[in-house]
Specification:
The structure is a single chain. By secondary structure, the protein is α/β, with parallel strands linked by helices. The protein has one domain: DHBP synthase (Alpha-Beta Complex), CATH 3.90.870.10. Helices cover 28% and strands 21% of the residues. The chain has a 10-stranded mixed sheet, sandwiched between helices. β2 and β3 form a beta hairpin. The longest helix has 12 residues. The N and C termini lie far apart (44 Å).
Length: 207
């Protein structure tokens, strides 16, 4: 049975953040609010947790997972970013964007797209997510909380508890109910490509 933490959206309780980090370090999967939709997240380097996360979502290893990062320095450690890409990222982070970039060797091979060697990265503008990333000291691996056979994400923590309480270890409630999907921008090629329009303004990238 999953635990259920109610965290203050602006001043999350340090004791609960520490407990959440311990759950993640122990291989737990967490339903976490972000600045877009709820995400299912786990430890970056826990292969078993990653496999469980994929099973819950009903996705295979070809589905791109996303690294939730604290800032641009984290992104630079996990993705190859040139000067032009860096300026674009700086203008749009933190915020409701997911960027597809070429992965560095720091990214475990099992997390990269099998043919393109890419990774999705984002810097969420959410106090709880940022505080948890700070507590962990490294990015989290995540995916939008959409259940198999569904097209819309789950954003009600009570509904998440009802549906997933036996499959995940923690649900975090910050009082919000989801703000919409991220805008996905592919920055691998010579020009940015809009993959999905969401909350973020694609005009920042000339799209």
């Amino acid at each position: 049975m999953s635990q259920f933490f109610q965290l203050h959206p602006d001043n999350p309780q340090p004791r609960l953040l520490k407990q959440a980090a311990q759950i993640i370090h122990a291989g737990g999967i967490v339903a976490l609010p972000t600045d877009s939709c709820y995400a299912l997240i786990c430890h970056l380097d826990d292969k078993h947790a990653v496999e469980r996360l994929r099973r819950i979502r009903g996705i295979d290893d070809k589905h791109l997972l996303t690294l939730l990062c604290r800032d641009l320095s984290d992104i630079a450690a996990y993705a190859r970013v040139d000067n032009t890409q860096f300026r674009m990222l700086k203008a749009a982070t933190p915020g409701p964007y997911t960027f597809i970039l070429e992965a560095t060797k720091e990214v475990p091979r099992r997390l990269s797209h099998p043919s393109r060697k890419t990774i999705g990265l984002r810097v969420p503008e959410n106090r709880i997510t940022q505080a948890l990333l700070e507590e962990l000291g490294q990015p989290l691996l995540g995916t939008t909380l959409i259940l198999p056979g569904q097209t819309d994400p789950l954003n009600d923590p009570e509904q998440i508890r009802e549906l997933l309480s036996k499959q995940i270890e923690l649900i975090v409630d910050d009082g919000t109910r989801g703000l919409g999907l991220t805008t996905v921008i592919d920055l691998v090629g010579a020009e940015p490509v809009l993959v999905r329009q969401g909350r973020g303004d694609a005009a920042l990238f000339g799209l």
